[in-house]
Amino acid sequence: MDRLTYTILDIATIITKHALLRNENDCIRYLIYDSRKVNDPKHSLFFALKGNKDGHSFVDVVYNLGVRNFVVADGFVPVRDYIDANFLYVEDTLAALQTLAKYHRKQFNYPVIAITGSNGKTVVKEWLNQLLAIDFNIVRSPKSYNSQIGVALSLWQLSADNNLAIIEAGISKVGEMDKLREMIQPTVGILTNIGPAHSDGFRSTEEKIVEKLKLFKEADRLIYSPKYIPSMLISEGPQLFTWGFEETDLKVLRKEQDKGFLTIYAEFKKNEISIEIPFNDDASVENAIICWSVMLSMNYSQEIIQKRMKALLSVEMRLELKNGINNCSIIDDSYSCDIASLTIALNFLQQQNQHKKRTLILSDIPGIEKDKASIYETVALLLKSNSIDGLIGIGQDISSFSGLFSKSAIFYNSTAEFIKALPGMNFYDETILLKGARSFYFEKISKLLTLKTHDTSLEINLNALEYNLNYYKRKLDNQTKLMVMVKAFSYGSGSFEIANLLQFNRVDYLAVAYPDEGIALRVSGIKLPIMVMSPDLLSFDAIIDNHLEPEIFSLDLLRSLIVLLEDRGIKEYPIHIKVETGMHRLGFDTQDFNELIEIVLTNNSVKVASVFSHLAASGSPKHDDFTREQITKLKIFTTKLKEVLPYSFFVHISNTAAIERWPEARFDMVRLGIGLYGVGSVNEGSLLETVAILRTSISQIKQIKEGDTVGYNRNGILKDGGTIATVKIGYADGYSRRFGNGVGKLLVQGRLVPTVGDICMDMCMVDVTDLPVKVGDEVIVFGKTPSIESLAASIDTIPYEIMTGISQRVKRIYFYE
Ligand SMILES: *Cc1c(COP(=O)(O)O)cnc(C)c1O
């Protein structure tokens, strides 16, 4: 590929005066910062960034993977001599990464479009790519890489072969945009829109607008709508292209829906013009108008614009993990196909441990003719470093490079050819990644490989889960360990799917309620230590066979475990001692203390890994004195135990609410539960991201006359008649009967509508009077709105019960953006 090549010496010259170079000709192609995402160690430069975990503590790990080039902070002392590695010392490693990105960007003088705004950045970027790709060789941000790090990595992809770049910029607080602007140096700016001010790091909407506009200070042209920016905030500089419903360059007049297409009419240079798009939701309309403005400002003819707009495809940036046929897991990422997103998808595939075998079904990767060899060489390298067992290549390009791949790889010229061969193929107990360009219609393959899904599904947003995990990690200091509660099917949200992500994110411990849950995780390849909270005599063998660590809460239990361990000749088996401090559920009482000590001291078949207790009311201020007492009791117990035990053990008592409210009770470890799943304990609920969305759909619509009744026992009545929709969720799915007769509200077309009548086993009815609904329309049972918390409150229960009550027949779909 015709990209600039940098040696480590070149990079040293750009970012620092202080370098320790052993091999100054090492050639650098990849910038990495995550030790879990190393694909080509020889050509990678590792930046030790200070994130949730300090990157410096991973230098050794990365070195062992074969990386020899490092950017570290001044004063960093490696744990040992790496005599064949190069070290560049800088004041601030993130700033150094940005300096390099900025330098690289400066080497090119083709247009760079920068997009910012509260929503729609990624869609506008992807649509512009669809609309302009015929005329330009575009380089763009992968997925929604738009952060301080993401922008730098996006810019690093620029090459001399491109002639247009489209880069997303996202900020979350004041002061960040200047850094992004200096890196991107945009020539064209797009501001998509401005959302509500709260929920992020800005005091007001105005402050947010001012910050966002900093991106465009030196741009030649800015495309925006005055609807979002008061004119006084627009500074001089860029030439402006405005759109909106008032007097603007592109003045939107009206919309008309006709079958599958929506026509948008507008006035431009005194003429009425229009586009047709295959979407009709408000967000898509705005995004399309923005793209239209961009094309008009580039002097595209209306004829070309119309033709291309009509062919716009939906942008599905998310990758989904679903259950497949024959006990397979399917990772469906079949809407885009380029090296950057392939790398991301392979990393996700790598996180999956539930099946030994990993297969990739990959289409041609669109690109320019002369680059093809290098594209497929990179693919071959990626497959090798990600230990992919099987490759199925679909398309003429990838087939023509079959020589680059392992002998066992299979190739087909087209999706149709593959589908024809599918009945004879034996996919069984493996994880299959589907990665195909839009023109290959991999959704057809996806349909054939995934299990039929019942319309109702619980969608789990893995990014949000990761976000919440990091929210709590940031609260802990480096010493405090983190145990995550994955009992009750991870509070209803999944088993190995969640555990894989937690393992990948290096939490220290998992905890489950029953041995079966722990065994299921082991079978799925989870290697983390797992505590089992409710073990019993009969399950000890299975616990030991699966390296699970029992909670021990009574002398009887302890004695019988010891008998078994002695029988099997096992020494120092890890156990967790549960202490009674006020919950009055499970745990050793004070009077057991001496006997407990005696057993533990005189017996080497067990080893105390931790001593812990559980708080009864950590989230509730009115019980704070009681909580303080519980903490003290545990302290007294563990202090005494520390005095006599010849080895150390962890102490822990904090659940989610206590992590937030009782910093003094963090001890050696905390046990994170509900917060991970996006339900906050105290007031931080709004700082967490929504993890679970329960979606279903409308199966029939009926007109109800005055006097008609709806559902069992004729409890449902619409006084003046109206319209009801029958929705595919009932109490057997976990939508409690208590939500009947208007107590429950579901989201239909952005509006909360009440239930009518009793909730049935598999269905319920809602009032959709005056809403233009049709059969098949989506219904949200919970998500951002209505929230799980509000559902719980309306039937006088707690979020825990709502979450764990969603029945197993509701399919779980995991996605990653
Ligand atoms: C469930 C559980 C937790 C987690 O509680 P959250 O309130 O969900 O954070 C912690 N410790 C024990 C012993 C538990 O059973």
Automatic annotation (TrEMBL):
SUPFAM superfamilies, per this entry? Alanine racemase C-terminal domain-like (SSF50621), MurD-like peptide ligases, catalytic domain (SSF53623), MurD-like peptide ligases, peptide-binding domain (SSF53244), MurE/MurF N-terminal domain (SSF63418), PLP-binding barrel (SSF51419)
Keyword Oxidoreductase among UniProt keywords: no
Q: Which GO terms describe its cellular component?
A: cytosol
Which parts of the sequence belong to the Alanine racemase C-terminal domain?
691-815
- Residues binding substrate are R585, M761
Q: Which SMART domains does its entry note?
A: Ala_racemase_C (SM01005)
User: Quick one: which pathway?
Assistant: Amino-acid biosynthesis; D-alanine biosynthesis; D-alanine from L-alanine: step 1/1
* Active-site annotation: K487, Y712
What are the names of the required cofactors? pyridoxal 5'-phosphate
Give the EC number: 5.1.1.1
Q: Which GO terms describe its molecular function?
A: acid-amino acid ligase activity; alanine racemase activity; ATP binding; pyridoxal phosphate binding
What's a Pfam family in this record?
Ala_racemase_N
Function field: Catalyzes the interconversion of L-alanine and D-alanine. May also act on other amino acids.
Which named protein is this? Answer: Alanine racemase
State the organism named in the record.
Answer: Albibacterium bauzanense
